[in-house]
Amino acid sequence: MTDRIDHDQPLVFLSFAGEDRPQAKRLRDDLAARGFDAFVDEHSILPGEDLLIVINKILTRSSYCVLLWSRHTPDRRWVEVEWTAALFRDLKEKRSFLFVIRLDETELPLLLAPRKYMDAFVDWDTTVAGLVATWHRDREVGTPVYPAPDATGYSDDAHPIELYVRNQALSVSHVLAAPSTVTSSELSGLVRKALNLRDSESRYGGIVSVRFAYELRYRDRALLDGPLTYLGIGNGDTVDLVVHGEFVSHGKTVSTWTFRDGPAPQQSAINPQVIRALIDAAFGHLMP
Q: What class, spelled out in words, does domain 146-286 have in CATH?
């Protein structure tokens, strides 16, 4: 059967109501032309196979899930099971796994309303191109990509940009939206808020602590002050987050550390396990 899953291509699980099958097939074909294999149940399940078991296996193996949302979708039990399972995986793995494409102006449920979605009924081709471009950017960043913990949007900005904030020591990146007119100094504040970055972390009643300072870099250069557009930074670009740590014991600075490209230094007056506990406490919410 020619429509069976090709394991050599990134797999995309399509969730949709039966009435929207033509759009699902169209999306499957458009994604295939761009190097992505999409799961559409009637083409990917052999006679006699258990639907629930197959869906569970495919959804687990998929790189992404796309929910096609329309007036036909609400109260469809099977679709609800699929997208809630996909949302659970999205949240559990702290990464962008579930994507929503609206086929008309039907409102999304509360759980999905804050999430980024694309309106295919406005421009189908642009929507598909944007979806694939997002996936390619995610893969090119070089680290797992997760949504920013603070998903505050910018509804007052007609054309917000998406930026990847990467920390190579943590081996993660986070994608966040920013106003199109944002400056580098404003971006620093936005990153701190969106990623819930702390000023300090302490243990043992404050006997041992670390103070943090943050720096954003682009192409290994510190960001100059001014609008990002003047600095050549635009939608889909990656900025590196550098974390400077000052470790304090009994009120005295005992070591400093730039938390960027590798683990903490081996030589330190503070026990490495204590350092690890401080780092995990400060940045654990950003890691899977």
A: alpha beta
